[in-house]
Write a structure and sequence with these properties.
The structure is a single chain. With 138 residues, the chain is of the alpha+beta class. It has a single domain, classed as Alpha-D-Glucose-1,6-Bisphosphate, Chain A, domain 4. Helix content is 26%, strand content 49%. Strands 1-7-6-5-4-3-2 form a 7-stranded antiparallel sheet, covered by helices on one side. Strand 6 and strand 7 form a beta hairpin. It is globular.
Length: 138
């Protein structure tokens, strides 16, 4: 498994940050690695969905759990990616920190490329979080 961690401070309240990141249908706007989101079903705070990722337009299934104003946990349940992405919101004085952690690997024969893809995912995560910051602070 590859672990990736990115933290970024945003000059905004937890409420404002949550309003942007919890709109998970809007994920492709910030996360360029996610091309499309298609919700399958919703049960309480869980959303089951299919996403199309930029890597060869592969489709992955996710179970996304929203813990209001705390965290979003996206578990990859089927597809080329196995693992999870967790986005946490941490109040820190006048700012709010977004902490994104990936614990993932590529499945099957693609598993040997996990290390190469790790750099790409880290870069994409840094870019996404910067885009979220710019959206919130504008």
């Amino acid at each position: 498994m590859a672990t990736i961690e990115v933290k970024l401070g945003i000059n905004a309240t937890v409420d404002k940050v949550w309003d942007v990141i919890s709109d998970i249908d809007n994920e492709p706007k910030f996360w360029k690695g996610t091309k499309e989101v298609k919700n399958i079903s919703k049960e309480g705070n869980k959303v089951y969905r299919e996403i199309t990722i930029a890597f060869r337009d592969q489709k992955c299934m996710q179970e996304v759990t929203l813990e209001p104003k705390k965290r979003i946990e996206a578990k990859f349940t089927k597809g080329i990616i196995s693992g999870e992405k967790i986005i946490e919101i941490i109040p820190n004085g006048d700012e709010t920190i977004i902490h994104t952690t990936w614990d993932m690997k590529l499945t099957g024969v693609m598993g040997m490329f996990t290390g190469v893809i790790k750099k790409h995912i880290k870069s994409g995560t840094e870019q996404a979080m910067q885009s979220i910051k710019e959206e919130i602070e504008k």
